[in-house]
Design a protein that fits this description.
The protein is mainly alpha-helical and 228 residues long. Helices cover 77% and strands 3% of the residues. The radius of gyration is 17 Å and the shape is globular.
Length: 228
């Protein structure tokens, strides 16, 4: 086994594990922790592809594994969050409607997997499931401040936007220091706010994922400067 080629897969599996933990936290009523885990999954998901390209370790296995992780972390986990925080009052109907999100997301992922690499580097067709799941996580993270009708409308819109043919610019060609800095500052500020609101009761995985992501962004920043 080539260890170097498995490094990106470790980050992908970490993303998948975040989705599993998020579902568990949502089922136990810890919705903020569950939403934060989806955001941590976004961190890991933003790293695995770039690490694979950096190590020249891209593979069909990694691509398929990434899709499986994404459908759990950004499809199944967010739909449980929305059900427990918004749709639970509607009983089985709410449960059934919540389940539509991963169905649309799975279709979106399957369509992405059969598009050409060059096309996916230039733009996405439809809203990526990662972005859609992250938006739902943010809405449930601030569920007390966001009206249920807003979450319902956004949930419905995202389902159809994922399978739409709208062209959305891809960030894959943006140098990571610039893109990574934006993501890091945004998520860092968000996590601090949530940490204050939840009195420091964070999933322990946060204290592992965040330093790794910051170290990775710093490394890429130095790497890009050296190549200039």
């Amino acid at each position: 086994m080539n260890i170097r080629k498995q490094i990106p897969n470790i980050f992908t599996l970490g993303n998948l594990y975040c989705g599993f933990l998020s579902i568990g936290y949502a089922a136990s009523g810890q919705y903020k922790n569950a939403a934060v885990l989806v955001l941590i999954g976004m961190m890991l998901d933003s790293m695995d592809g770039r690490i694979a390209r950096m190590l020249h370790a891209e593979s069909s296995l990694g691509k398929e594994l990434d899709s499986l992780a994404d459908i759990v972390t950004f499809g199944v986990a967010p739909c449980f969050l929305v059900y427990y925080t918004v749709f639970f009052n509607n009983g089985m109907l709410g449960f059934a409607v919540s389940g539509l999100f991963p169905l649309f997301g799975a279709y979106r992922l399957a369509r992405f997997n059969i598009t050409s690499e060059q096309q996916s580097m230039n733009h996405f067709t439809g809203v990526p499931i990662t972005a859609a799941g992250g938006i739902l996580a943010l809405l449930t993270l601030f569920n007390n401040e966001v009206p249920s009708i807003v979450t319902t409308v956004v949930f419905t819109a995202l389902c159809f936007l994922m399978i739409s043919t709208i062209k959305i610019p891809s960030f894959k060609k943006i140098p990571l220091p610039r893109y990574g800095t934006i993501v890091t500052v945004f998520l860092g500020a968000l996590l601090i706010i949530v940490n204050i609101e939840s009195h420091g009761r964070f999933p322990y995985l946060l204290y592992v994922a965040t330093p790794i992501y910051l170290i990775y962004v710093a490394y890429r920043f130095v790497k890009v400067r050296e190549t200039r």
